[in-house]
Amino acid sequence: MNKMTFEAFKIFEPTTRPSGSSAGKWNRSKEGLSIFGLLNRCKSSLGVKSLCNILRCPLRKYESIIKRQKLIAFFVLSEHYDLVQNLRQHLRSTKNLRGIVRRIANFTASVQDWKNLKKTIDNLLGMSRAIAEYTSECDIFESMSSLISDDIFSVSYFLEKMFDIHESERTYRFVVKSGIDDTLDDKRRKHNGLPDLLTSIAEMEIVDLGDVIEECSIIYLPRIGYMIAVKPVEEDISEEEISAQFSNFDFLFKTNEILHFKSDRCRELDQTFGDTDAEIKQIEFNIIHKLSTLVLSLDETLKSLTDLAGKLDSIISIAMVSKENGWVKPNMTDDNDHEFKIEEGRHPLQEMCVNVFVPNTTSYGKDINIQNLHCYYPILDSSRVCILTGPNGSGKSVYLKQVGTLVYLAHIGSWIPAVKASVPILRRIDTRIKATESISLGLSAFAIDVHQMNSAIR
Asked: Minimal CA–CA distance to 68: which of 413, 430, 432?
């Protein structure tokens, strides 16, 4: 199928809508009335992507079509309703891990990335438990179960035990829970008690400094350590006056009328506490690095699992639409000489736009009785070429699109809107229904039509 055939059958139909960020510009697109829009009940972005791939690549192998039909038939059964709802609940929060794993490898993963990783792995494990008793019935279930290893459970366990989500969201960085590392917990206790300790030390220092200062506080700067920051009563004070008035302290520097000194108490703080915040972050980094290494070792496994989850989402979506609209499974044959017949077929999009849709039967083949053909007349012995006539507005174009669309749906493994259908495997589908003119083609409308006809009969 070429691009024009996809457009004629409305497989995809992107439409534009006004952008909220650029008023007056029609630069945002969404899906209009199309086969993709009809079949898309996916719960995840992975499922939407997988459904697009299914629609873009009709199957030509008999075994592949039958395999997909069996998957859809499994999810259509009413006895599997609870399983379908359980899987869709897990698929809702399943994310594409490719970008997340890449950012973890580059040490640029955000808190949201870690949250999505945790949710996705938990959902994958939840799906594996839900499908455990059905692995022998579906190949996709067996593939997912075979990829679930002890390392996947380990990642889930460590994320649950280590990742402090609430504190991480507050500080905008990965925070390790308490109880993981004794040294980390000890330094956190010291760090949490620092504000009160520094306040009490500042009160003692202000007594030693006397009345010549207006404000006093204890601050910390990397590489310099703890120091006293004071604001003298006299704003314009020289270095000689500073040395005379604060002889018991080592003067460091002056910024914005604030004087900075080193005292004996500050040196004691340097020896006792040091840079506790940096030490805490270093310990957390070492723990996160070990977890990241484990995640990166499962890179290919996680990608395969999420791909299977997306495929599962898209197949469930097709099955739901098939069941809700009363579609049937077509009988596919790999013999081109076999009878082609669709009993009371319906156009899947057109019937959504009218109050009453009249079904149409389509058939051809060597064994077809010519007397039973009501809408067209065979002109070859093989009954493969038919001429369809009728007045304007009688539905000729809709009928042609209906036949092509139903055959297309059968070749993606989907069920089709009909009472009964038998469809042979086709090599290609060509159309001359809709011509898309473009300056880049360098062809007139007539030349485009001739080109399409040439492609169809060649």
From this structure: 413
Q: What is the mean pLDDT of residues 334-353?
A: 85
CA distance 430 to 418: 22
CA nearest to 302, candidates 119, 436, 130 = 119
CATH class of 331-427: alpha beta
β-bridge mates for residue 244, sequence order: none
Is residue 412 within 8 A of residue 35, CB to CB? The reply is no
pLDDT band at residue 175 using 50, 70 and 90 as cut-offs: very high
Residues 364, 340 contacting (CB under 8 angstroms): yes
C-alpha pair distances (Å), 328 with each of 24, 103, 151, 203, 263: 45, 45, 42, 84, 86
Domain at 33-177+287-325, CATH from 3.30.70.2660, 1.10.1420.10, 1.10.150.130, 1.10.8.60: 1.10.1420.10
Q: Please, which residues have CB within 8 angstroms of residue 429's CB and are 6 or more apart in sequence?
A: 1, 5, 404, 407, 408
Instruction: Kindly state the average pLDDT of the residues 295-312.
Output: 95
